[in-house]
Write a structure and sequence with these properties.
Length: 345
């Protein structure tokens, strides 16, 4: 969303906003990584579009004054590196660096206060988990962590902070069915919910999410074409620059050599960087990746091809039956070959 706004050199003071107007102050004295005249940029979270730009003054301060969308996540960048995320609620916001704790704090709005208090609670629980001295103690700490995130989502289901909490629930391995239940609780007015719809799309037993992407020769190939022809298909998201992805290739090659003739296909979706197409083609040839390889990176560098699969990191993969049902996902190492052995005789 484009906004009408004015950036000004900072006086480190806050003025009361009119309705829809927000003053966003930054006070970063003591932060050694930044200097006077460093570029400060505001963007909507998840985009590369600059909403406004300014520079730090001699006191390492900046001010933004403008009309922003309410209940929206924004990120402030300095020299193209993220400084802090802000969730707006028509209240002025201060981004402050505390030299004693060496932390950047976002203050001045109820949503940011909620997220800060939540983060402190979760951080403490994660520390307890990592310091557990026995398996039983670790299991209890892990369950306590997931329950605390669950409780926080329920308590904040009618405000946008629940979206960040749901991210954490999934990241820490929360139960998928419970994740869907939590998803259903969240107020549906938030446009970000399209990101979480993918949670439902990738539950075991759900129907195929079709992709139609171009291979190295420019031919469009759809996953549905493969399943409809009676094949078991592994939709595999990866990239040549991804170390863990490269580590999986020998296992993929071994499984493909054994099961390709029995009705197994791999649909490899690369997220290589724009401009590295030739490198990608050469890499697949050099590493014996003789299955279907397609280009998944958008022209803007986005991972749009993986959005419906909720792909946030790679490698990620999804195994579909000839009936188009999701049978397994995120198979690593020998797990792929073992799973195929259970289904393909």
């Amino acid at each position: 969303m484009m906004v009408c706004c004015v950036w000004a050199m900072c006086s480190c003071s806050q003025t009361a906003p009119s309705e829809g107007e927000i003053t966003l102050n930054g006070t970063l004295a003591g932060l050694e990584q930044v200097s006077e005249n460093d570029e400060v940029v505001l963007r909507i979270s998840g985009t590369k579009q600059n909403i406004a730009t300014t520079t730090l003054n001699a006191d390492k301060c900046f001010t933004f004054e403008g009309k922003l969308r309410n209940e929206q996540f924004y990120i402030v960048y300095i020299n193209d590196k993220p400084l802090a995320e802000v969730c707006t609620d028509n209240q002025d916001v201060n981004i402050v660096y505390y030299a004693e704790s060496k932390k950047v704090s976002v203050e001045g709005s109820q949503y940011n206060d909620i997220l800060r208090n939540y983060a402190e609670k979760i951080h403490a629980l994660v520390n307890t988990l990592y310091s557990a001295k026995s398996e039983a103690e670790g299991e209890k700490a892990y369950n306590d962590l997931l329950q605390a995130i669950d409780d926080s989502i329920v308590a904040n289901a009618q405000n946008p902070t629940s979206l960040r909490m749901l991210n954490d629930f999934n990241m820490y391995g929360g139960d998928e069915k419970r994740s869907v239940e939590l998803f259903e609780l969240i107020d549906k007015k938030y446009e970000y919910l399209k990101d979480y719809q993918a949670i439902k799309n990738t539950l075991i037993g759900t129907q195929l999410i079709d992709l139609k992407l171009k291979d190295a020769e420019g031919k469009e190939i759809a996953v549905s074409e493969l399943t409809n022809s009676g094949k078991w298909v592994l939709v595999d998201f990866w990239a040549t620059w991804c170390g863990p992805c490269r580590g999986e290739i020998p296992h993929l090659v071994k499984a493909y050599e054994k099961y390709a003739s029995k009705g197994f296909e791999i649909y490899g979706v690369t997220f290589d960087r724009v401009g590295d197409e030739a490198k990608w083609k050469a890499f697949t040839a050099e590493n014996g990746m003789t299955w279907i390889n397609v280009w998944g990176t958008g022209s803007d560098g986005s991972w749009e091809a993986g959005e419906q699969f909720n792909v946030k990191s790679i490698p990620s993969n999804f195994l579909y039956s000839p009936e188009g049902k999701l049978v397994a996902k995120n198979l690593r190492g020998e797990d792929l070959e073992k799973t195929l052995a259970e289904h393909i005789k």
